[in-house]
Design brief:
Elements (H helix, E strand, L loop, with lengths): L2 E3 L4 E6 L17 E4 L4 E2 L2 E2 L7 E2 L1 H7 L9 E5 L3 E6 L7 E2 L3 E6 L6 H9 L1 H10 L10 H6 L1 E3 L3 H29 L1
Parallel strand pairs: 3-9
Antiparallel strand pairs: 1-11, 2-10, 3-6, 4-5, 7-8, 7-10
Helix pairs in contact: 2-5
């Protein structure tokens, strides 16, 4: 199939640039739904989970008219820039202002394959080339959607995603074992 712009590979993008609880007439909560911030995504992993802010049910409904779904891919638009996370959970999250949420287009793009492609040096290089800013590097949605995705046939995408997923699973298991041995 060749290369296609990311915008042709996704059926939905969640972009809450500039959105905060205060702008919605509320504030953070003591309990409720977790808010995913750019600082919570690092090297394909969810990090600093204990520092995630929470929002109430009412604020969640106001903030997230389109809910995050299992299989969505998140990418940070700045600070840190270009970090990618595959959402393999049914947990409902609030996407904070520097995180894009992408839903792969059914029948066109395998979402886990898209995640791995977006972490590739080729995609990350194009991302940096489209970024703006001197002090803080950032990327606007229109530029993100222009980035190219190498899109082999769907069966090959699925096979690639399964292989890379198995390798990631083995790495995760080895890290857990090393953690136990170090303790």
């Amino acid at each position: 199939m060749g290369y296609k712009p990311l915008g042709e590979c996704v059926e939905r993008i969640i972009d809450h640039r500039g959105l905060t609880p205060k702008k919605l007439g509320g504030s953070w909560s003591e309990s409720g739904y977790r808010a995913l911030s750019a600082k919570n995504i690092k090297n394909g992993l969810l990090v600093q989970e204990d520092a995630m802010n929470l929002v109430s049910e009412e604020m969640y409904r106001q903030w997230m008219p389109e809910e995050v779904k299992r299989g969505d891919v998140f990418i940070t638009s700045e600070a840190p820039f270009g970090e990618v996370l595959y959402w393999d959970s049914d947990e409902k999250l609030v996407l904070s202002q520097r995180v894009f949420g992408l839903t792969a287009k059914t029948g066109v793009c395998n979402s886990r394959y898209l995640y791995y492609w977006m972490r590739s040096p080729q995609f990350q290089g194009e991302l940096r080339g489209r970024a703006t800013g001197t002090t803080v590097i950032g990327l606007r949605q229109p530029e993100l959607l222009k980035c190219q995705v190498n899109l082999p046939p769907l069966e090959q995408q699925t096979a690639i995603a399964c292989l890379l997923g198995a390798i990631d699973g083995k790495i995760s298991l080895n890290n857990q074992i090393n953690g136990y041995l170090a303790a």
